[in-house]
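Worked example 3 (structure in, sequence out).
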């Protein structure tokens, strides 16, 4: 169904948007103009204060020089003083003189101007004498406002040796001063105090205070030892007319543009209405297709998760009975067997181990697919890992008269990889090279640097080779190319897993082969920046039984009857080891607190507590914190193993476990300590 568009609200929206932007721009410009005006006002105020400060300082300097000259000639002091006074009086003072302190106050010893009614010989007492006395001790001079008989004067007192120089100026702040001079472009009020006060007003350009209209400012300056303040304001615009009117011009132009754009947009929108409706139809179709695609992707993700969870659960469930199969087969193999029994037992072990290898590979692929494979990337020496893999395939190669040749380039090369996973890749490549070779053939391993950033590890065989159309197929899970390969043992999953492992280690894997000329499989991995550290195989630290203890005992914490029977049968081969059994975590903790044992074999999947909880409880209890705890579990994930060893487990055996390894660990835990001589 076609959707009808309402165009008028869109046009109105455009109109309001541009009009709003115009208003915002006008306001912003107005703020800029106001800021410029404020800046100019402050500059003018600073200039006026500097002029006033200069005038007062010049008057003080002139009066101080006059006093020094007059006092330097005591005989003609009065004459000298009167001769130089007019130059000082011209700067604004009404009268000035020199007063000398006496026992009763101060006496005038020189004067000029007579504006204050003082003559030579006049004695000054009272409040005026107190001001003279304070001025005599001033550093740079002192100012004071004096109200006397309805008149106000500004007085300046300057110390002159033991005498005091005084300057009196009458004023009436109620009469505004002329707007010429410093106040030509400003309105102002001068106060004889740090902050404006009505009782300290000296002069002003206004008839009404405080100054009204427009921005104002305050600046202070020094007059002698005192600080005066000047309050100033603007008389008219300080910026030019164009700048003052620019905000209004922007507003008008913006409103006009808004109206024009609204009309244009309305016209275009009407012409495009049909096209928009077609776009809507197409959009709905695409949305429906995208929704179907997302649903399919989610279904695929759910299927992958379900597959991975199923494989993980099945691997655990398969390991548990496989533990009993391989365990009992190992026990049988360790006992004396008749000739007709040895081959069946060996076949049980071979088949069981082959099944275990398949389970491990399937589980690894499922972990890679869901991103849960834990890797420990570190510098790994290629020669060391290759030697370990070669040792593992030498018996099979010898059985088929296949020679193993180590080529050049392995020594001194280290790659960034997970040591265990790299060994797994190399072992798979070597096993295939041996299995698919011809009797009396040859397998050659080598390594070469590609581009200074990666190394290629290769395994070359002298087998029948692979058809070009099958090169990628050999890396597909469960694919075994060639009808003549059905007799060769294998699951067809090893190469697929190896390529996945190489890719998650930031590498790649491939092959080069021609029918009848053999095959070369290679894996490329990043070169290590640092050399590979020396490898030390970890050995479990198991404390021995102390001398004088009773016969050794082992507590088996396991709820699977088949595994309980297997462990009891295996430990019976040690002779005097007593096996206790607990089928739950709480039963195990209760037994250990009541009866000490030499070691604990702990399963992780228990009906009440997890094995990890039981381990923590044992390590937190001083009565059991030193008992060796060997974890025996079908969970073979590396993260799980590392976490439990860090939590205090002495060793970790993965089901199906090696019976001889189990016996070695239990023997070490239950062996009496060597006596100290």
């Amino acid at each position: 169904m076609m959707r009808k568009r309402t165009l008028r609200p869109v046009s109105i929206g455009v109109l309001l948007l541009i009009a709003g932007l115009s208003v915002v721009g006008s306001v912003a410009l107005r703020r800029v103009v106001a800021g410029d005006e404020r800046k100019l006002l402050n500059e003018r105020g600073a200039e006026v204060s500097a002029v006033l400060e200069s005038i007062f300082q010049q008057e003080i300097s002139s009066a101080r020089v006059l006093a020094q000259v007059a006092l330097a000639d005591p005989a003609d002091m009065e004459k000298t003083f009167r001769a130089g006074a007019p130059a000082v009086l011209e700067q604004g003072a009404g009268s000035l003189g020199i007063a000398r302190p006496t026992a009763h106050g101060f006496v005038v010893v020189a004067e000029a101007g007579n504006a204050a009614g003082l003559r030579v010989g006049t004695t000054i007492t009272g409040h005026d004498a107190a001001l003279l006395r304070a001025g005599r001790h001033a550093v740079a001079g002192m100012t004071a406002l004096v109200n006397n008989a309805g008149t106000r004067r500004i007085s300046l007192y300057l110390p002159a040796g033991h005498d005091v120089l005084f300057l009196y100026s009458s004023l009436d702040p109620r009469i505004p001063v002329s707007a010429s001079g410093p106040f030509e472009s400003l309105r102002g009020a001068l106060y004889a105090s740090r902050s404006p006060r009505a009782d300290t007003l000296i002069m002003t350009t206004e008839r009404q205070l405080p100054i009204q209209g427009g921005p104002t400012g305050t600046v202070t300056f020094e007059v002698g030892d005192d600080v005066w303040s000047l309050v100033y304001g603007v008389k008219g615009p300080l910026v030019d007319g164009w700048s003052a009117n620019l905000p209004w011009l922007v507003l008008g132009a913006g409103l006009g543009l808004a109206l024009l754009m609204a009309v244009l947009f309305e016209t275009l929108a009407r012409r495009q209405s049909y096209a928009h409706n077609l776009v809507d139809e197409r959009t709905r179709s695409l949305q429906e297709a995208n929704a179907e695609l997302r649903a399919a992707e989610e279904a695929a993700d759910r299927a992958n998760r379900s597959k991975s969870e199923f494989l993980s659960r099945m691997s655990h469930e398969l390991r548990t009975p496989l533990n009993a199969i391989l365990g009992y087969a190992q026990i049988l193999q360790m006992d004396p067997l008749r000739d007709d029994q040895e081959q069946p037992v060996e076949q049980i072990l071979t088949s069981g181990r082959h099944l275990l290898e398949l389970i491990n590979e399937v589980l690894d692929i499922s972990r890679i697919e869901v991103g849960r494979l834990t890797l420990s990337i570190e510098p790994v020496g290629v020669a060391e890992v290759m030697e370990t893999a070669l040792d593992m395939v030498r018996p099979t190669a010898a059985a088929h008269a296949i020679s193993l040749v180590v080529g050049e380039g392995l020594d001194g090369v280290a790659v960034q990889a997970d040591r265990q996973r790299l060994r797994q890749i190399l072992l798979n490549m070597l096993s295939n090279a041996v299995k698919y070779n011809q009797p009396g053939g040859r397998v050659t391993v080598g390594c070469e640097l590609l581009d200074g950033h990666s190394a290629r590890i290769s395994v070359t065989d002298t087998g029948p080779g692979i058809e070009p159309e099958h090169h990628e197929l050999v890396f597909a899970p469960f694919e075994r190319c060639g009808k003549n390969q059905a007799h060769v043992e294998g699951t067809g999953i090893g190469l697929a897993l190896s390529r996945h492992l190489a890719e998650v280690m930031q590498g790649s894997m491939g092959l080069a082969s021609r029918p009848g000329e053999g095959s070369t499989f290679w894996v490329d991995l990043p070169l290590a920046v640092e050399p590979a550290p020396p490898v030390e195989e970890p050995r479990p630290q198991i404390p021995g039984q102390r001398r004088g203890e009773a016969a050794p005992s082992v507590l088996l914490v396991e709820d699977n009857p088949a595994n309980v029977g297997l462990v009891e049968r295996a430990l019976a081969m040690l002779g005097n080891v007593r096996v206790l059994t607990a089928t739950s975590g709480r039963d195990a903790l209760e037994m250990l607190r009541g009866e000490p044992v030499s070691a604990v074999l702990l399963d992780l999947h228990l009906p009440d507590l997890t094995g990890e909880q039981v381990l923590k409880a044992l390590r937190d209890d001083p009565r059991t914190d030193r008992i060796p705890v060997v974890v025996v579990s079908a969970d073979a994930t590396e993260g799980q193993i590392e976490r439990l060893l860090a939590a205090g487990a002495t060793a970790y055996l993965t089901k199906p476990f090696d019976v001889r390894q189990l016996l070695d660990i239990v023997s070490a835990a239950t062996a009496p300590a060597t006596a100290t001589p």
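Notes: The two ends are 101 Å apart (CA to CA). The CA atoms of residues 153 and 372 lie 94 Å apart.
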